[in-house]
Amino acid sequence: MEMRLKVSGAAAAAGSVTDFRFVTTAAALDAVPENAVLEGDIIVEGTLQSTGTGFRVTGTAKARRSFVCDRCLKACSENSAYAFTEDFRPSDGEPSGDGESVFEGEVLDIAPLIHDVVLSAQPMQNLCRPDCRGLCPRCGADLNEKDCGCDRRPIDPRLAGLEKLLRDSEEED
Ligand SMILES: [Zn+2]
Ligand SMILES: [Zn+2]
Questions:
Q1: Model confidence over 107-129: pLDDT tens digits?
Q2: Which of the ligands is closest to the CA of residue 75?
Q3: Could you give the CA distance from residue 68 to residue 58 in angstroms, rounded to a whole number?
Q4: Residues within 5 Å of ion ligand 1, judged at the Cβ atom
Q5: Model's pTM, two decimal places?
């Protein structure tokens, strides 16, 4: 889909600020994350500001995000908001730089910007909460709910031999 902002007429007067609002979906934006599901509508709201030499687009894309916690495997969902700011200048044949896009004619399409914003804002890790304790690797208990009491100390291979020696000597006593 396209998200077209008209940048001619009154919107082009320096200092002019225009509000915009679009309702889209992850599928329509072709912004489907690999490790989460963005459910329902994505609401994109913001302002278009004429800077004299171009336009500044500022706003927020809001989505309902569902995922499975990487540590405890619990199904979670949360409201997420992705903020964006981008400067657009009229195309003069030169490629655009960082944080800058170009447009041609009287319409500026922010769909590619929103697509990138939504995908790049997805966290690398999906956690139900920042300090999720995960599952016990021994018995599978959810350690957020209880401590199962298993010995979960990782065994250093260099110490495993020593531990065996100690155990053997204890058994001899
Ligand atoms: Zn978790
Ligand atoms: Zn356990």
A1: 999 999 999 999 999 999 999 99
A2: 1
A3: 31
A4: 69, 71-72, 128, 132
A5: 0.79
